[in-house]
Amino acid sequence: MMFAPRLEIDLGKIQHNTRTLVERLAGRGISVTGVTKATLGSPEIAHAMLLAGVNDLGDSRIENIEAMRSSNVSARMSLIRSPMLSQAKRVVTSADMSFNSELEVIRRLSLEAGKLDRTHAVVLMVELGDLREGIMPVDLMAAVSEILNLPNIILKGLGTNLACRSGVSPDDANMSELSRLAALTEATFDISIEIVSGGNSANLEWVFSSEHTGRVNNLRLGESILLGCETLHRNAIDGLHTDAITLIAEVIESKVKPSRPTGELVQNAFGTCPAVADRGAITQSILAIGVQDIDLCGLQPPEGTEILSGSSDHLLVTSSFDGAAVGGEMKFQLNYSALLRAMTSPFVTKSFKSAIDVSSLRQIA
Ligand SMILES: *Cc1c(COP(=O)(O)O)cnc(C)c1O
Questions:
Q1: Which of 117, 123, 202, 272 could form a disulfide with 157 if both were Cys (CB 3.0 to 4.6 A apart)?
Q2: Three-state DSSP class for residue 235
Q3: Which of 58-67, 128-137, 254-263 is least confident?
Q4: What domains can you pick out in the chain, each with its CATH number?
């Protein structure tokens, strides 16, 4: 019995993508943190990443980390979004490390870790131009000075995140600034900075083209592992699978209808009034999936099929494809935004295929 809609997730391909990236980056002295946030903390995908050699796992939501812990995923896990003050206790309970940019939060983590009689590691995020999270470089030494005096907190490293909010490209200039700050921290406080986490999948182009990766020794990778592309231009990465995850939806209506609506046009369900060109009668099919489950703009339909529109629960396409009959299934490629929404929709079944490569099971046994 096949459920629809469903994501077909090929764990063998995810493992291949992960291993390829881990090996290429190891050649540059860089470890990989496998980022699971787009998978709702899927233990299957986490496991595939771990078998393929990621150093540790990172997720932006403590709920996902808790879910992986209770599914017995055994790995070092980091919360890669700055913790909420209100979740400090859960963070020190379930995450080994967190990425931080507010002293107030780190003080609270220190307090909660003390109550539980454990230590919590932190990576300090530095603002290097993208204007998302991060301490301003001029404030870094003061922050480090205070953190080094906090009980139950270990300063593990420095990190930065680019190409997210503003699309600032990682380059020799901002990456060498991160290296410089790591060296300055070490020299100022006579400590060693173990992790210098340079960024996400948007850093890959820089890593493979730069002569100067400097102190950067870690990247946090999600999209490149899952979708096989880098994220500055969304180019496929050589040797990686771009179809490890596909979406299948089922047709619930298929009829020849006019291409233009009849009657006075006002707002649709989402408050917009889409312009529709008249191209005569077309075969229109409705699939049982909607914007509650996917980002319509992030779907790539099969050859010969065109996406017309969508609503909360419907996706409308026109197709010359045989699968457009009622009960038929249609397969779509997804971008990150569509993947994220489908993965986190309770209405989309996750169907795992392809067993994990057994040779790697033996390797870690
Ligand atoms: C999401 C995220 C990542 C991973 O980004 P990808 O583009 O999926 O590789 C890395 N670091 C942080 C802080 C993130 O929020």
A1: 123
A2: coil
A3: 254-263
A4: 10-227 (3.20.20.10), 246-352 (no CATH)
